[in-house]
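User: Can you predict the 3D structure for this chain?
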Amino acid sequence: TRKLVLRELVNQGALNSGEKPPVPHFNAPIGTIDSAKFMNAIKEHLDAFYALHEE
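Assistant: Here is the predicted structure, written as structure tokens:
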């Protein structure tokens, strides 16, 4: 239950007593995004998205 989860988060040090966890962020389904806008936003960072990227 919710109380047990919150208690465990406090016990593990993830939360302080009485603190609530942050609201989760949900991304839009990939089929609903504006791909051109997305690519424009990340184009300067594209090399960091390659699995075989070397630094």
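The mean pLDDT is 86. The longest helix spans residues 2-11.
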